[in-house]
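Encode chain A's predicted structure.
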Amino acid sequence: MIRIRRGRVLSVRERHPGLLEATVEIDGARATALAYPDLTGEITPGDIAILNTTAVALDLGTGGAHFVMAVEGRETDERPAGHAMKLRYTPSQTVVAAAEETHRQAVDAVTSLDAMPVIVAGLHSAVAPAAIGVRSVAPGARVAYVMTEGGALPLLLSDAVPAMRAAGLLDVSITSGHTFGGDLEAVTLPGALATARVVAGADLVVAAMGPGNIGTGSRWGFGLIEVATIINVVAAMGGRPIVAPRVSFADQRARHRGVSHHTLTALGLALAPAEIVLPQLTADRAAFVREQLAPLLDKHTLTEVDLGEVDDVLRDSPVPLRTMGRALDDDPDYFRTAAAAGVHAGRAATSRR
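Encoded structure for chain A:
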């Protein structure tokens, strides 16, 4: 059930285009609320906002801010540009112009991705270091980000994507499934990959969820499990799946030490082979990780990449690098692993030209 409250808007600032951050007075206290004007229309001080306060009330990891559902008394009459519905059959269902329709002839003609490298990353925080890795070896490559459904559905929630665009790390974003707000919209993951290939003209793709994640601490109940599906789809379409595993020695939870059980479980579920990429690790950590991956290497392959000067580039990243509240210095193996996948994919993309 949604926990709904009304709040008076006190102030509004644009966090970045498409995402507004408001201070609201609710239940006699001040709080932060986020709004997507593409869904709600503009909000201004003095408005009475209808707020979804569920996550904050439950003190969830996805909490910290309320979300504006609507502005009391405000109606919108803008005619939708397309007729592909996302967030279907929910109060927030929204219409987009899907590339499978607007570029139907080109997308339908895709029978193969022609070995296009697709970096398969489990978390949104891996997208920026992966792109940094790509740019370090293939500065002229056209890089597309395909956002999947494992995390947030609005791409506009991401602070990293506009920062990556501004820094020249990313050329185009494509939102697939029920995710929305990218430069291009796609109804399905295969449609998004085909769109990246022939509409966006991408040399390679980074496929990963949006900000946030869901986890239950159980074997099967976590968002990153979609890595298996991404691998299968990329391989079935003739692409080259290159996995950036979730590797950390900073996380104190045993199930996430070394290669996270999230990645190990997803790789075990994948029906198609993929390339797993690691950076150079210390001897003891490398041995630990290789032992974890050994049961999977009858199906998948393992490549170790020397990052060289990329380590310095990560330190000078124009995009803040954070995962689970940890920065580069707190969790270097995580970010270096994503960058290694980017280096490997960048070299693969260059060799295809």
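The mean pLDDT is 93.
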